[in-house]
Design brief:
The protein is an alpha+beta fold and 133 residues long. 17% of the residues lie in helices and 38% in strands. It has 2 helices and 6 strands; from the N terminus they run H-E-E-H-E-E-E-E. A 6-stranded antiparallel beta sheet has the order 1-2-4-5-6-3, covered by helices on one side. The longest helix is centred in the middle third of the chain and has 15 residues. The two termini are 25 Å apart.
Length: 133
Amino acid sequence: MKLNAVEIQQIIGYQPPLCLLDRVISLELDDFLIATASISINEPFFKGHFPDNPVMPGVLIVESMVQGAQILFKNKFPKLQLKKIKKARFKKMVKPGDELVMKLKVLDLDNKICDAKVYVNDEVACSSELVFS
């Protein structure tokens, strides 16, 4: 299943600038998701983070993974809330012009746990286990 930005906004209930995902490339509900987000220099957070060296804040990278998980779990758990971020690792800075590719895989459906990785240019920029309630 593929989704465009408007369909994503309808599912997660956020509008720009809070909706960070642009499209879902591949989705198998309750199993895996691949989604993308294009990062533009016009993003409002770049004005203060940091003026001479614009970098996407780590919390927004994690939020993009959470939004992906909301889509991944949408049928079984429509009111998903983040409970815990485990083993978070930031390995590469996300800069203007980058495209994030998020890959989420369900590890434990009953306990709402998924493995999440964000790639930039085929390199892991961030990885984590996300636990929801």
